[in-house]
Amino acid sequence: MDKPKVVLGVSGGIAAYKACELLRRLTESGHDVRVVPTESSLHFVGAATWSALSGHPVSTEVWKDVHEVPHVRIGQGADLVVVAPATADMLAKAAHGLADDLLTNTLLTARCPVVLAPAMHTEMWEHPATQENVATLRRRGTVVIEPAVGRLTGVDTGKGRLPDPGEIFEVCRRVLARGPVEPDLAGRHVVISAGGTREPLDPVRYLGNRSSGKQGYALARTAVARGARVTLVEANTGLPDPAGADVLHAGTAVQLREAVLKAAADADVVVMAAAVADFRPAEYATGKIKKKDGQEPAPITLVRNPDILAEVAGERARPEQIVVGFAAETDNVLANGREKLRRKGCDLLVVNEVGERRTFGSEENEAVVLAADGGETQVPYGPKEALADTVWDLVSSRLG
Ligand SMILES: Cc1cc2nc3c(=O)[nH]c(=O)nc-3n(C[C@H](O)[C@H](O)[C@H](O)COP(=O)(O)O)c2cc1C
Q: Which residue positions does the secretion signal occupy (predicted)?
């Protein structure tokens, strides 16, 4: 079989050197990669590097090898175009259809999926011009992955950093695996909660649960590959941020509620995959609770936490918003699931059986997705990303 053909566009950002690692990952995993740098990017990484690492000639302009019409052929023949880093300038050109060099011509002729990984200073990223260009590109079906937060050029830090090349590679792998289809969540904002809340008793102790957050992260990664703008609200997972998602951190149920409701205000889809504690200690001891000789421990009084899923589903920020819940059950799994779906008022409920060695922390999952319209989809035991993709298939068919 022919190797999948990938065009790696590199534009003139300080992070261009990271594209060498992305190129390596792509070639070593069996892709035929053609690098198309911009003229500016050659200030950062030279053409010789791209040519030697890719095994292909490298050009920035349309006037070389004209008999082969490279300005058309390279894009037409690609299975995937990924631009990393994508400068503010490149986003503007792509959004407006400019074609003044080989890479911008390639973006116009490609009919395959396109992934752009922007990287720039926070001010450039947040500028309304850039944000509008990104929104335009997403609406048209381009997968634009959110930049990471961290150290930028020089001493400053903020949002605008190119995600880790390994993470960009994973996005490319998932997009390629989906084949030449339109990203069905393009232009959609999805909010996903993941992990487990911790309800503090004193400065060193908490009531928590066994949720690892892996299912929520799988949902976030697959949603990015399907073109969504993703806000991931995580609680106590300790997992590395998935490339392309905006990650917010919460500790307790009350904090998670606040973050989810805020993010949900303009969301098309809210998926509550986090395990939110139903109760929290009524009292928080500001000093560590000590054991006292000859005394029984004081009982812990609990109070109810807010029911975030019921609140999001009951008071939808937008009438057409789709709300997905998760139910972890240890017994009477389906009957409890159906009851919970009705009680919470969500559109879909992913029901899985949990136990000490099942689901929590594992890489695999098995579930039934119940729908408010009566549908029932069995998802066999397999990777959490496969379950995530089934959830997105069901969501996508319900989005207007
Ligand atoms: C040292 C240096 C670092 C730069 N880093 C970035 C960057 O990370 N992101 C960005 O959008 N522009 C960056 N620029 C500005 C771009 O290089 C400039 O907008 C250029 O016109 C982009 O051209 P291109 O999009 O054709 O590659 C940088 C410029 C310099 C001199």
A: none
